[in-house]
Amino acid sequence: MSEGAPVNAPETLHEVTLVVNGVRRSGSVPARRTLSDFLRHDLRLTGTHVGCEHGVCGACTVLLEGEPVRSCLLLAVTVDGAEVTTVEGCCRGDGSLGAVQQAFQECHGLQCGFCTPGFVTTITAYLRDHPDPDEPAAREAIAGNLCRCTGYQNIVASVLRAAELRRREGA
Amino acid sequence: MKPAPFIYHRPESLPDALAVLAEVGERGKVLAGGQSLLPLLAMRLASPEHLVDVNRVPGLDGVTVEPEGVRVGALARHTRVERDGPAAEALPLLRQALRHVAHPTIRNRGTTVGSVVHADPSGEMTAVLVLCDGEVVLARQDGERRVAAPEFFVGPLESAVAPGELATSVLFRRPGGRTGSAWHEVSRRHGDYAVCGVGALVTLDDDRRVVGARTAYVSMGDTPAVLDLVDAVGGAPADGADWAAAGRLAAGRLRPDADIHASAGYRSHLAQVLTARALREAAGRATGVPEAA
What we know:
The complex is a heterodimer. Chain A is built from five helices and five strands. Chain A is of the alpha+beta class. Chain A folds into two domains: 13-89, Roll (Ubiquitin-like (UB roll)), CATH 3.10.20; 99-169, DNA polymerase, domain 1. In chain A, strands 2-1-5-3-4 form a five-stranded mixed β-sheet, sandwiched between helices. Chain B has a five-stranded antiparallel β-sheet. A four-stranded antiparallel β-sheet of chain B has the order 11-12-13-14, with helices on both faces. In chain B, strands 1-3-2 form a three-stranded parallel β-sheet, covered by helices on one side. Chain B has three domains: 7-53, Uridine Diphospho-n-acetylenolpyruvylglucosamine Reductase, domain 2; 63-173, Uridine Diphospho-n-acetylenolpyruvylglucosamine Reductase, domain 3; 178-287, Enolase-like, domain 1 (2-Layer Sandwich), CATH 3.30.390. The longest helix of chain B has 24 residues, at 264-287. Chain B has helices at 14-24, 37-42, 78-83, 85-90, 92-98, 104-107, 112-118, 124-131, 149-152, 230-233, 243-253, 264-287; strands at 7-9, 28-31, 50-53, 63-65, 69-73, 135-140, 143-148, 153-155, 158-159, 166-173, 178-187, 194-204, 210-218, 226-228. In chain B, strand 13 (210-218) and strand 14 form a beta hairpin. Chain B has twelve helices and 14 strands. Chain B starts with 6 loop residues before the first strand and ends in a 6-residue tail after the last helix.
């Protein structure tokens, strides 16, 4: 099989427009640009973190049309026109911490913080669909995200605390 | 860890997609959900010259219950199939197994047909398709063909899809009679690759005696193995069959490989235990299936 286009050939650029956290953003990128790199390099939204870059760690999780997906496993060009929510969009309207972010702060749900953006987006979508999880459900909800500081106990506590905060706010 | 450059195509109709695939032939690769392809591209285990993104092709995302079974279109995401009530009612095994396919975040994007075409012997959908006597519809510019499941899986990560072809749908056949199903697997974490996974179909007669007992496996060889175990339990009452004997029979017939996750011996042990467990559960469910079904 052929080994792809010649290395030095100029790559064709594709115009990609997304609505990111409610704001229309565009960039001109090669087709091989992943959504995670598009967000970070082209749109300068560095809240989305790239860990393993092959779909295992979950750090790059963003919400695509509201549903959590691995942004490292999507090409930006393939989701042209879509609505994306990143960790930067998981705050309140006035820019203060959202319920999930606040819960992470209160429960010490992060240590180094590298994995946190993926957890925050995943949990935000999970609690929208399952507002009242018990402890095993909270643990299952984050099973696809890795934390190498081994902070899972506090992350599970953060899920439950965020659910409580949301209920209190009538969210 | 970045994909190599490729020429990107985004056809917006099925004829356009098939025309592009015919043109690029073996230099091209189809992109649907991409949850297996993107890691291969990122690690440069694959570097196709052309990528044909079919995500904008209309009419391929259906999940429909037909008289024969459940038909799943090429762009139906796992989550969509998993949540489909009529599909789960017609073929409960589909939902039972889909819950073990990776993590929900991956299922939101990955497609059921894509995981069949990827032909990873640890992919649950390969075993379900074989167990259900399913088939894959392969379209090309000048026609289409249907390939039955056992012939479809040629080897690890190798399917019968030829250059220029697009798998437009798969049919999971609904088992006849009073049949129950179950899926059991062991993995390090829920959502990880199975160390061993077993799907089971048990069919009972009007007196609730076992007349059919079939199983299919993931991570137990190069292609999804399917076994007929009726010799061990045929004729026995559903609530008193020797499922452990069926488990031993299965383990004796499987030839798993060892890898970093498990020895061959441990896999065989799991197959024995999980086979008995899945068959017993499937038989229990079959008992509750009305005769007319």
